[in-house]
Amino acid sequence: MSEPIIVFDKVKKAYGNFTVLQDLDFHVNQGEKVTIIGPSGSGKSTVLRILMTLETITDGVVYVGGDPLWHENKNGTLVKAGEAHLRKMRTQLGMVFQQFNLFPHMTVLRNLTEAPRVVLGMSKAEAKDRAEELLALVGLSEHAQKFPGQLSGGQQQRVGIARALAMRPKILLFDEPTSALDPELVGEVLNVIRTLASEHDLTMLMVTHEMRFAREISDRVCFFDKGKIHEEGTPDELFGNPQKERTQQFLSAVTEGD
Ligand SMILES: Nc1ncnc2c1ncn2[C@@H]1O[C@H](COP(=O)(O)OP(=O)(O)OP(=O)(O)O)[C@@H](O)[C@H]1O
């Protein structure tokens, strides 16, 4: 049984009086592929944004790789983490965004080499070698010198995946990676994620509306509702035999016509 690499311990996230996550207990084991599904506004993206340190937490503790993410241990007490701690912790995670978030004024190659050089201090030659390997992995070797605007949405998202991998994260987060794409471009992105999931020992946590894909690649699927895990299980359990009425309602609404 592998160790948890992500742990949410009674995490609360509120914006003013509005509570998005309420006492959330959640974990992902090392190497596990976990998918979060659920209705709009249930807090799915917030979980990923907290892990990327793009959102703070209101209460509770998040652990990544055994260390508190948003806190530092000072003489046995957890205190709010400083920027240096956050920066160090962040290197364990990579994120693939819905809107790709590539640097538009940089070539594809530079999009992949910039952060490894600046943040990890990698040499130019090493960063370039690594970027070329990753572009081959996502099938974009011949587009290295293009700018993001010259690529299709599917190609841009494949660059987004390669860029996240360039930082050699232990954990890869995907926030609805195909929802900004035209339907005919979804398949090529899912193929890349499928390859990563089957051939690499990465821990993957994904928010997606692609139910069939979630069923195929996940070890575990969590159904979120109102900032909590309402039900979770293997894909066969959750999609094939959901136990709770709310899960059944959600699944029958989103899989209608499938
Ligand atoms: N900066 C913010 N200020 C106030 N409310 C916010 C902020 N960011 C998110 N929210 C609210 O928090 C709730 C959860 O947002 P989140 O993006 O996590 O939902 P989600 O489950 O990912 O939804 P979707 O499937 O629509 O992306 C939503 O109701 C959203 O409006």
Automatic annotation (TrEMBL):
Residues of the ABC transporter domain: 6-251
Domain of life assignment: Bacteria
Cell compartments where the protein resides: Cell membrane
Species assigned in the record: Rhizobium halophytocola
The keyword Metal-binding is annotated on this UniProt entry: no
Classification via CDD domains: ABC_HisP_GlnQ
Protein name from the UniProt record: Polar amino acid transport system ATP-binding protein
UniProt cross-references to Pfam families, sorted A to Z: ABC_tran (PF00005)
Membrane topology, as annotated: Peripheral membrane protein
